[in-house]
Amino acid sequence: MAANLIPGKEIATRIQEEVKQEVVELKRKGVIPKLVAVQVGENAASAVYVKAQARSCEKVGINYRLHQLPAETSENELISTLQALNADSTVTGIILQLPLPQGLDVRKIQSFISPVKDVEGVNPTNMGWIVYGRPGLAPCTALAVRECLAYTGVKFYGKEVVMVGHSDIVGKPVALLLLDQFATTTVCHIGTGERGLLPDHVRRAEILIVAVGKAGLIKGEWVQEGAIVIDVGINRVGDKIVGDVEFEPASQRASWITPVPGGVGSVTTAMLLANVVKAAENL
Ligand code: NAP
pLDDT tens-digit profile of 83-95? Predict the structure, then answer.
């Protein structure tokens, strides 16, 4: 069986169109959505991301500003910058670009982003709302995974979901969001991998989501016939970008699969824009 592709770009375009309309509505009511990205020091990967953010915002009518700080910025100075942005009523959304220079405590600093302007859903308050089953501004990649799954029309109730990877911004929130839909959710991590138990868990998955960052970690032959496969991983192999799942053999067994690139990544950017609008509406 050849899997259907979950078309990340098409899903992203639909969300961007919705966001564009919502921005028009907001402006009609006198609310101007404005996203500020704070970047500390220089980083090639982050610079690419910042440019992409600026372009995406421009397309849907969201104001965007990059606030650059020198690499030697102290924790207190960075926190003061965030507090000033929290207090600025013209700013409706804030992003703290990662990575931060070494020595800065990322989680502590993220906790100073006002929860109502935290469009990446990284403040502990927003993480906590997910635990309570009332997600507000949730991490964009987790929301993107949920959108990709929604595209397939799958019902989560009682389904065997296996989430490989338990990072704070992807694996854990995805697991909690699906648990809340009454999926039977298993979370695998390095301990699972090192004990050699990944194949057994993956074979059980009716819905498999992988966010690790290791090309080819998930063998196609492990994928259950008819499973839905969401590959969050982004890995550079030579001049190619690939996911964590062996795409060809997995797509022979799965019913739906996300391509990499052009899958979850495209939707993630769109979910950031959706969060910016949501934050502006709620301010
Ligand atoms: P991360 O913070 O490095 O987390 C990776 C996770 O994988 C950790 O939970 C780690 O467990 C687990 N892991 C490592 N080796 C494993 C193994 N052999 N078996 C099972 N689990 C293993 O990464 P992340 O931020 O979640 O990102 C994961 C991947 O998704 C990366 O490729 C990243 O580029 C990509 N990504 C894509 C998007 C998108 O929009 N498409 C967004 C964000 C990230 P331990 O912590 O216990 O070691």
Answer: 999 999 999 999 9
The Å distance, Cα 167 to ligand 1 centre, comes to: 6
The protein residue whose alpha carbon is closest to atom 15 in ligand 1 is 190
| Among 111, 62, 108, CA closest to 86 | 111
What is the C-alpha separation between 257 and 217, in angstroms, rounded? 16
Closest CA to 96 of 116, 77, 82: 82
Answer whether 171 contacts ligand 1 (Cβ < 6 A): yes
Helix axes 140-152, 264-282, angle to 10 degrees: 110
The sign of the dihedral angle between the CA atoms of 169, 172, 178, 179 is negative
Q: Is the CB of 266 under 6 A from ligand 1?
A: no
Q: How far is the CA of 282 from the centre of ligand 1 (A)?
A: 31
Write down the domain spans for the chain: 30-119, 139-266
> What is the helix (H) or strand (E) element at residue 15, kind and residue range?
helix 8-28
The highest-level CATH class for domain 30-119 is alpha beta
The whole-number pLDDT of residue 252 equals 98
